[in-house]
Amino acid sequence: MLKEISRAIRMLFLMIVVLGLAYPLIMTGGAQLLFAEQANGSLVSKNGEVVGSDLIGQDFSSEKYFHGRPSLAGNAGYDGAASGASNLGPTSQKLMGVIGKRAEQIRQENHLGDKAMIPSDLVTASGSGLDPHITLAAAQIQVDRVAAARGIKANIVQNIVKENIENPQFGFLGERRINVLRLNLALDEVI
Predict the structure, then answer these.
(1) Cβ count within 10 A of residue 138
(2) Which of 15, 75, 83, 139 is deepest in the core (most CB within 10 A)?
């Protein structure tokens, strides 16, 4: 019996060393060597100061910035420690009410008509609540507002939008999209 207990304890310590120390160190080291930027959070810097991440959306509320997807992650939104969706289904009256309010806010902010179609990504949160991207249609709706708030011509803003389009991963996964943080930083560089 003691022999079996001794063998089990040795196996426990071996597994602690292999799976608790060696494996994490190898994976962390490999990630740092092969994918350092991603392993460190894909951080975005401006003038030597970290202003965000390519992977996590932010709340831009100023009229002179493009707005991203709404977030339900955490009390104030965009909280990486509280990532998750609302779990409200398409038949939920509460969800329909929230979407209706968001659509009305988008129409008012962007001076659109009462019946103007709003891209779904401007009124619905992603599954994680942290999506940093918007569709081209969502950016197009906001061009005139951003241009007016910055006192520049809409075609200048339109060109900046075009320069910040990201193609689908590997050429076929997903759709063309725009990282809102990168777009807003590009706007700040111009104006």
Answers:
(1) 23
(2) 139
Residue labelled with tokens 């092969």: 34
List CB contacts of 122: < 8 A, sequence separation 6 or more.
67, 69, 70, 102, 103, 106, 134, 138, 141
Q: What is the pTM of this model?
A: 0.81
Q: 160-183 burial, b for 16+ CB within 10 Å, e for fewer? A: bbeebeeeeeeeeeeeebbbbbbb
pLDDT the model gives residue 88 = 81
Residue ranges per structural domain of the chain: 1-40, 42-190
d(CA 83, CA 89): 18
Residue 54 sits at φ, ψ, to 5 deg, of -65, -15
More confident residue, 142 or 74: 142
| Residue in 137, 133, 95, 142 with CA at minimum distance from that of residue 119 | 137
